[in-house]
Each structure stands twice: as C-alpha cells, then as structure tokens.
Design brief:
Layout (H helix, E strand, L loop, with lengths): L1 H33 L7 E2 L4 H7 L3 E4 L3 H7 L6 E2 L7 H6 L6 E5 L4 H12 L4 E5 L3 H8 L1
Parallel strand pairs: 1-5, 2-3, 2-4, 4-5
C-alpha cells in the first residue's frame, strides 16, 4: 500500500510539473506575440525623396479627403483617411511586406497609425517626423 501511494504521489507531482511548464510556455508565447518592434521609424522631410526613389517607399497620407482637397498632398501619395470607418479594412488589404511612409497634418495621426500597422505585422513602416504642413512650408 505504501508503494502504491508513493507511485501515485510521484506521478501526480510529475503531472503538476508538466502542466506548470505548459502554462509557462503559453505565457511566453502570448508575450512574444504582443511585442512590437519600433526601431528607426521616424524620417525627416529631407529624406523623403531618397526613400521614395532609392528604397521604393510608398507615401501614405492619413488626412481626410477634405483636408487633401483644401491643402493638397505630397505627389505620389496614397490617401488613406485615418479617421474613416474603413481605415483598418484598407490597411488590412495592403502588403505587410511593403515599404510605407506615413504622414498627416502635423504628426499626431501618423504616430497612432504607425502603432496600428506595427501591431498588424507591418515591418517596413516609417512616419514623417513633421507633417504635411512642414513639408508644404519647405517645398510648396
């Protein structure tokens, strides 16, 4: 009888250890899924031309269509209204391996959009560290 209780306790302890290890591994996997890498993601307005021409980045204008109509846009930009209801649907359709530079009026929306794209697995996204207003003041 003593041997039977010892074997049962040993097996039960082994089962608890295995369950604990599985639990630890699942927590580790969840933590690694939530980790977002944000390295070197800001670009100056002076570097935009080089990134577009040499590295083939696509400019993404996050302003509303009314803002673009009223103030213009940087040439060759794709308009993706950050405040529209279909913003996430539009970015879900974009190539996650593509290269993108985000900008808005002054930098607020582009920072928020950068975080969203990073969380969705986009790897080559930068934001213009000054918005359209700074670009227009310098180049328009």
């Amino acid at each position: 009888m003593k041997y039977h209780n010892y074997a049962f306790a040993k097996g039960f302890l082994g089962l608890i250890i295995i369950c604990f290890l599985i639990f630890l591994q699942s927590c580790k996997n969840e933590a690694s899924k939530k980790q977002v890498v944000t390295v070197n993601q800001s670009v100056s307005i002076d570097d935009i031309a080089n990134l577009i021409n040499d590295e083939k980045y696509q400019l993404i204008d996050l302003r509303t269509h009314d803002e673009v109509k009223e103030n213009g846009t940087i040439p060759f930009s794709k308009i993706v209204d950050f405040s529209s209801n279909d913003f996430e649907h539009v970015i879900d359709a974009m190539d996650k391996n593509g290269k993108y530079i985000l900008y808005c009026k002054s930098g607020g929306r582009s920072g928020k959009a950068l975080k969203v794209l990073n969380e969705k697995g986009f790897k080559n996204v930068k934001e213009m560290n000054a918005g359209y207003d700074a670009w227009a003041a310098k180049f328009k």
